[in-house]
Amino acid sequence: MFKIDLNSDLGESFGNYQIGMDEEILKYISSANIACGWHGGDPMVMDKTVAMGKKYNIGIGAHPGFFDLMGFGRRNISASPEEVKNYVKYQLGALMAFAVSHGEKIQHVKVHGAMYNMAAKDKEFSDAIAQAIYDIDKDIILLGLANSEMIESGKKIGLKTANEVFADRAYNPDGTLVSRNKEGAVIHDADFAIARVIKMVKTGRVTAINGEEISIKADSVCVHGDNPKALDFVRKIREELEKEGITITAISDFIK
Question: How far is CA 147 from CA 33, 74, 79, 93, 138, in A?
Fold first, then answer.
């Protein structure tokens, strides 16, 4: 039987700025990556999102990134591995406080945006992220780009790891994501995206942007939910996966 986690980046609203459709998305996913206040989110939003995650029995994850509210954490920032390690510790600790106050545990950590893309290729960055998690709680799962340096760093230090794939993003032949600045980086055809996900889960293969077939491991699928069309997509991808006999469940249910 095939099992897959559906995750989404949530809790990214802050102050008077409303981003995403969090509660609607929570009805269809199995794990939530909750912003920790640096690229998005704030204490009120973090508390509310953790509470909603508990309500819908969702795996709660920390979603730390660079301190870059203006750039939504998507701009590369020059930082040492030691700084990155402490950035992750700081934000993980903040979300953990809210989780504990609601009687919940942190299931996983998935870093955000530029930090995610940099760590996928940079061994020192990925080692720093894995070390930060390990130092705080060895049972927390590291959710990272499939087959990337993040997964290798997590395994090396002794963390449980989960390979993440993307329904709506194109892949380079080396398994990294195509830059959002390039044409074709984001897939807008929902049916095509869903067919790709089913193929990744069942065959462990995906077609790269140059047409090459590459190997990929899929434990968790990232689905975005920041507009009404995305909500329809999340609903549809869950329906289609279940039609294929694929069980939707939080990563902690099958990553041991």
Answer: 20, 21, 24, 27, 21
Mean pLDDT by 10 residues, the chain (256 residues): 94 94 94 98 98 98 97 96 98 98 98 96 97 98 96 98 94 91 88 94 95 96 78 92 96 96
Annotated domain spans of the chain: 3-253
Q: Which residues 6+ apart lie within 8 Å of 25 measured at CB?
A: 8, 10, 223, 225, 230, 231, 234
Give Cα 100 distance to the centre of its chain.
21
Q: Per this entry, what is the length of the chain?
A: 256
Cα dihedral 154/214/61/153 (nearest 10): 10
Class of domain 3-253: alpha beta
Question: 158: burial class by Cβ within 10 Å (0-12, 13-18, 19+)?
Answer: exposed
pLDDT at 228: 66
Beta bridge partners of 205: 215
Contact 216, 205 (CB under 8 A): yes
pTM: 0.95
Neighbours of 209 (CB within 10 A): 16
> Hey, how many other C-beta atoms are within 10 angstroms of the C-beta on 224?
18
